[in-house]
Design goal:
Chain lengths: 997, 182, 97
């Protein structure tokens, strides 16, 4: 056992030694240690280099507020987590930790030169120094600064761990399991409430885990904690979550918790989730988040070995570690005396207590004096000494005139400081509760709650143990939904240690040659704050951004109030007027994995597949993503690239027969006596005159007159329509329809049902389509005279009741078979077999579909339109019901500007060389070889090689395009302007003879 | 003319706590009070006021999904055509909409002592028995998918989900369950 | 994530809802009688209220119904929710929890 570890005491397991590594050196600690306590037990105080000046840094605290002792933990090449607080890391066998911000080593760090050059780096340095010359920022300054800046290094490999997530509900959520939180949970559970209690530490108990002096219910505090925890664990209506940080408070009592499941284990079970995100909706919340001890701001206060008094006590009482052999206390509170007494009792020499106050008369100061510890009142600190660990501290007494006297240097190997306690109001503030400044407490305390929430204990300024527990009991009981059980009583006693406190720098600090640090993590000193106020910053929000105080990963838990007090004094304003910076989530850094949870890889998004997907995959289809859907894009045969496959598929559809899976098309059944009138009001088309058994191409505009969707609508009965939408537009169209149905036209008796997935849709297209289907379809005469283009009828398809629509998105004779989805695969196979028996059938994908429809000038909403295209612009004015008094978008289309002749209109483009494939998205100009700024009159929306035409074709939106048909325009491309002829967008079979075959 | 071919439901995994349910007949009913009352004479339908309640009669169930909307579930042996016919003749002229959605979605049963926790891995509702008792049903979300969730017994839930989302939902529930069931 | 009281289903998490913009904007019975300015006003102009705002929500992944809500935009508190067609309740900010 090292000289720093006590022989007995603490909550560590002395029978279980754990080996670990820090910067490659092997050490030993005990089960129950944190990395910080284990390092201290080995006499290691130097654990990192600071952010800006690369100064040697030690361990300041024993908890989540730690600004200084940040490490990277490495389990393997992929499991590398930077910026973890050594004070929260539970030790496990084989823990491998690395310090940050040092090169080549922690002991000899080159960046240390920044500290000697520090007069060059005052606050605002980066804003002012690197502004000239402008060009140097990108090439010189930024790369260099970026290399030097930052904390830790992000892992380079994908995170191999699993992360879990869950939703939970409770009557009372208790955040924090110290004395107030435990009491609240017990009291709420007594009343039968569903309780969830969480604490960021590995075990419940909070401050009581390091308390030698408290007596609760007649026994030591630790015994009471064990009893309380057992009580809660045995209650089936209580969920206890240790190692769980409440990181965010969201509206309406939704609290985000991050539970660490495996980081404390040497060998986690394979595939065990590393962390779990809890989204807890609580009827009531009790915040028992405690308070954070404040450092004192004195010259040389960042030297390794200088730490908070409470931390020194915690390392001793909870972990059995002496933080030094000869310790000086600098304090403004009685808590400093308590630490001195505990360390003294453990055999540590106390070289002296420097008390900033003129006198201290409480129970603890008296006890310290009785133990023979020398106390200097009205003290201040003039500086510290020591290279990689504090070796001495110079203190003085402040005379009544305000100057220093009785200056003395005390040799020591640790300095403990206590500036008072800052209530942890982070979550309360996140909940939008308002804070008020309390002169009594010298702290911001919760004032008005915004949610059903209450704070209890130290986080609202209650410090006496008995009062804290009573406060917790009341909070818990009053948060329960019903109160029937008798209130529980808990008797607690403890010496009073909270009296006193100091905000801001110690006397005479500003004149000292050594730096007095306010923010350890971002290296902000009192001088930086002074510069900010000299520069004229008055609001703490501005000071924060100028100096970066409180902006590091610790968000200023130990520094904010000191910074505020220093600024307030500098500008001679009361603290509340300087303001308080906003508390933001997360309370402590939270992994991305926790937020992502299982939503990664295959589970990132649903992957929607049609009933025919597996067949297409087996046939070698290449798929593309369309929304969440996988759609077959083309079916390459051996040796074919996409170009060859698409050309073959196109020729097959034009010359014989093609087979296409159109199942993803959106489908909405519109049913009811008001169905026709509903569509009449919604779509631009007329529907009243559409006969049963007939189909019509429909266009849907938004109220602003622009096309939002299109699709074929089939009238199945007088009161029943089958509306199809684009694949991606289906949910949007249904939501828009529901909006008008429910809120504008509740007078119509009509209802909407999504049937997208009820039907598999098999498109059979091409001159041989009828021959292929003759043997597959029963109950319909497929001849053109009996079942012409745009017909629909129920039929028996390969033995299954379904629906046949004679529609075409290819310009060829075509049918779409709608069959119940479970039968889709077998019917697809049957049609494919029938095709083989009738001269061959070719499966084609979305790419071929795009080419074929472009040859016919059929638009794709979202490709050829962009949300600013009217039906007239798209050349679809024939579809607009001229005699209709109203439809959605009609009034907007009447505006003069919507009818201007120079609006962009859909046209066809063909390169004059007959070879050049235009880039989709390329601009269109009416003059060649322009220099910027160019005058551009349109853009290419679709562009393909057309197999049947033997040359490329393109669709474009061109200003006044229809009047330009016959003209020559220019498309600037990377190789130069391409001359194009403006033509009709219908490239193939303009008379539509094939479709009516 | 050919016989009806084989029927393929989406292939989904099974576990001790999860089973895909066999094909079923499903009808989407929407309509006013008159149509609802008339339909209830031939099929168990919850009252319009029975918010988020399922009404069962043997192997048939009507699930309240909205004030004028119900999901009707029956075994596949009760053909959709026959059921539609019976309902239409019962409803008569009262305005309504009935749509066969048998093939639109699939059923998944989630059961066992961990069922609640597994579902709560992706469903944001309070699924405790006191807040979500047996017989309660509702449309809700399961992570990025929309579902209908119906508690059929204390430890049995039925999830109805559109067929193309079913594989995602089942895989997600399996992933969640890894932390709760061996 | 807000907790929204659906007038049909009770309190449900925000993730089940879609937002529908300002409430009580009635589509003109005959838009062709409006001049361009009046039509643009209907189409685009919104109050952007700070305080109690009447707005539309849809319990899209629940009962599917649109409804109206009074929400205080400064606190996110829902003061009332009511069905489409019902008049706006007379409630001032801070009037309900």
């Amino acid at each position: 056992m090292s000289r720093w570890r006590t022989a007995t005491g603490g909550r560590v397991d002395r029978t279980r030694t754990l080996a670990f590594r820090f910067d490659g050196t092997r050490y030993e600690g005990l089960a129950g240690d944190t990395l910080a306590s284990a390092l201290l037990a080995n006499g290691v105080h130097l654990v990192g280099r600071s952010f800006k000046y690369h100064r040697p840094r030690g361990i300041l605290t024993a908890g989540a507020e730690e600004p200084s002792a940040l490490v990277t933990v490495r389990r393997d090449s992929a499991r590398v987590t930077p910026d973890l607080r050594a004070t929260q890391l539970e030790l496990y066998e084989g823990l491998d930790a690395l310090s940050l911000n040092r090169w080549p080593s922690l002991e000899r760090d080159v960046g240390r030169i920044n500290d000697w050059l520090s007069p060059l780096f005052p606050a605002g340095f980066y804003y002012k120094t690197f502004m000239w010359p402008k060009s140097a920022w990108k090439s010189l300054y930024e790369p260099v600064i970026r290399r030097a800046a930052g904390l830790g290094v992000a892992p380079t490999e994908p995170d191999p761990d699993r992360y879990a997530q869950c939703y939970a509900h409770c009557d009372v959520l208790v955040v924090g399991a110290g004395p107030a939180g435990l009491a609240a949970a017990l009291a709420a559970a007594d009343q039968g409430a569903r309780v969830l209690i969480c604490d960021e530490q590995s075990e419940f108990g909070g401050s009581l885990l390091a308390d030698r002096h408290a007596t609760i219910d007649g026994g030591p505090a630790a015994a009471w904690v064990a009893h309380a925890v057992a009580d809660l664990a045995a209650n089936p209506r209580v969920v206890c979550l240790p190692r769980t940080t409440a990181f965010g408070y969201f509206p309406h009592n939704l609290i985000g918790l991050a539970e660490r499941l495996t980081d404390h284990l040497a060998a986690p079970a394979p595939h065990a989730a590393r962390e779990r995100l809890w989204q807890v909706r609580a009827r009531s919340v009790v915040l028992a988040t405690g308070a954070v001890e404040r450092p004192l701001v004195f010259p040389g206060n960042d030297r390794p070995g200088v730490m908070l008094a409470g931390a020194g006590r915690t390392y001793l009482n909870r972990y059995g570690v002496r933080v030094g052999a000869r310790v000086v206390l600098v304090t403004a509170t009685d808590a400093g005396y308590e630490a001195a007494i505990d360390l003294h009792d453990a055999g540590v020499e106390i070289a002296g207590i420097a008390d900033l106050r003129t006198a201290a008369s409480g129970e603890l100061p008296a006890a310290a004096r009785a133990a023979g510890i020398e106390v200097t009142a009205s003290a201040t600190v003039l500086g510290t000494s020591g290279n990689r660990r504090v070796a001495g501290i110079t203190i003085a007494q402040i005379s009544s005139a305000g100057s220093s006297a009785a200056r003395r240097t005390l040799a020591c190997d640790a300095v403990l400081m206590s500036g008072g306690f800052t209530p942890s109001v982070h979550l309360f503030s996140q909940s939008r509760g308002t804070l008020r400044w309390s002169d009594d407490h010298q702290a911001f305390l919760p004032d008005r709650s915004a949610e059903r929430e209450r704070s209890a204990g130290a986080c609202r300024g209650v410090v006496d143990l008995a009062e804290t527990i009573a406060d917790g009991l009341t909070a818990g009981a009053e948060s329960a939904p019903s109160r029937t059980a008798t209130a529980r009583r808990i008797v607690a006693t403890r010496p009073r240690s909270s009296d006193g406190g100091h905000l801001g720098a110690v006397p005479l600090a500003s004149g000292a040659s050594q730096k007095s640090f306010v923010d350890w993590q971002h290296d902000v000193t009192i001088k930086d704050l002074a510069i900010a106020t000299r520069e004229g910053f008055r609001s703490i929000e501005h000071v924060k951004r100028f100096t970066t105080t409180g902006m590091a990963t610790d968000q200023g838990k130990t520094s904010n109030l000191n910074a505020l007090a220093i600024v307030a004094r500098a500008i001679d304003a009361p603290i509340p007027r300087v303001g308080l910076t906003t508390f933001r989530m997360p309370y402590t850094p939270t992994t991305f994995g926790t937020f992502a949870g299982p939503s990664r890889g295959d589970l990132f998004d649903p992957v929607r597949r049609t009933p025919i997907h597996d067949w297409a995959a087996a046939a070698g289809a290449v798929f593309e993503d369309v929304g969440m859907w996988k759609r077959a894009r083309y079916f390459p045969q051996p040796g074919e690239d996409m170009h060859a496959a698409v050309a073959r598929e196109c020729r097959a559809v034009r010359s014989s027969c093609g087979l296409f899976d159109a199942s993803t098309l959106g489908k909405i059944e519109v049913v009811g006596p008001g169905a026709a009138e509903f569509l009449e009001r919604l779509y631009v088309n007329s529907w009243a005159n559409l006969g049963v058994g007939r189909c019509r191409y429909g266009i849907l505009c938004r109220e602003d007159g622009f096309i939002t969707d299109d699709g074929v609508v089939a009238r199945l009965a007088a009161d029943r329509f089958h509306v199809t939408t684009t694949t991606g537009g289906a949910p949007r169209v249904l939501a828009m329809m529901e909006d008008y149905r429910q809120t504008e036209w509740p007078d119509l008796e009509v209802w909407l049902t999504s049937t997208t997935e009820a039907w598999a849709v098999i498109a059979v297209q091409g001159p041989n389509a009828r021959d292929v289907l003759r043997g597959c379809v029963e109950g319909i005469d497929l001849e053109a005279s009996a079942f012409p283009h745009m017909s629909v009828a129920a039929a028996r398809i390969c033995g299954v009741e379904g629906m046949v629509m004679r529609v075409s998105f290819t310009g060829e004779l075509g049918y779409e078979l709608n069959v119940p989805a479970d039968y889709g695969l077998e019917i697809w196979k049957a049609v494919h077999a029938a095709g083989a028996a009738h001269g061959g059938i070719t499966c084609y994908g979305t790419e071929t579909m795009h080419v074929l429809r472009a040859e016919k000038g059929y638009i794709i909403v979202g490709q050829d339109t962009d949300g600013t295209v009217t039906p007239v612009d798209a050349g679809l004015s024939w579809a607009v019901g001229r005699k209709k008094p109203d439809f959605v978008g009609r009034r907007s289309l009447q505006r003069q500007s919507m009818q201007a002749p120079d609006r962009k209109q859909l046209v066809g483009l063909r390169a004059r060389d007959g070879r050049t494939l235009l880039d989709e998205g390329a601009q269109v100009a009416d003059r060649p070889n322009q220099q910027p700024p160019m005058q551009l009159i349109g853009h290419v929306t679709s562009s393909y090689e057309s197999a049947v035409l033997g040359s490329p074709i393109a669709l474009a939106m061109v200003a006044g395009g229809r009047a330009r048909i016959g003209q020559t325009l220019y498309v600037p491309m990377p190789g130069g302007d391409v001359e194009v002829d403006v033509v009709s967008p219908v490239f193939y079979d303009p008379k539509g003879e094939r479709i009516n075959a | 003319m050919p016989e009806a071919p084989a029927r393929h439901v989406p292939s989904l995994p099974s576990a001790d706590w999860m089973s895909p349910l066999p094909p079923a007949t499903r009808l989407a009913f929407q309509g006013g009070l008159a149509a609802r009352a008339a339909a209830a004479r031939v099929f168990p339908l919850p009252d319009a006021q029975a918010v988020c309640q399922a009404r069962c009669d043997g192997d048939r169930a009507g699930l309240w999904l909205g004030p004028d909307e119900c999901l009707l579930l029956a075994p596949a042996t009760t053909g959709a055509a026959a059921l539609l016919e019976a309902l239409r003749s019962a409803i008569g002229t009262a305005a309504h909409s009935l749509v066969d959605v048998s093939h639109r979605q699939v059923g998944l049963e989630i059961r066992g002592p961990q069922a609640e926790r597994i579902l709560n891995g992706a469903c944001p509702l309070d699924l405790s028995l006191e807040q979500f008792p047996v017989g309660r049903c509702t449309r809700t979300v399961l992570a990025k998918a929309e579902i209908v969730l119906w508690r059929t017994q204390a430890q049995h839930f039925r999830v109805e989900i559109w067929r193309s989302f079913a594989a995602y939902a089942a895989a997600l529930l399996q992933e969640i369950a890894r932390d709760y069931v061996v | 994530m807000l907790l929204i009281p659906c007038p049909h289903c009770g309190e449900r998490p925000e993730i089940e809802f879609t937002y529908g913009g300002e409430a009580h904007l009635v589509r003109p019975a005959d838009p062709s009688t409006l001049d361009d300015a009046a039509w643009a006003d209907y189409l685009y102009m919104r109050t952007n209220t700070k305080g109690v705002h009447a707005e539309r929500w849809r319990h899209a992944r629940g009962c599917g119904r649109f409804f109206n809500a009074l929400r205080d935009t400064t606190t996110d508190r829902f003061l009332a929710t009511y069905r489409i067609g019902e008049p706006r309740p007379a409630i001032a900010a801070g009037g309900a929890r």
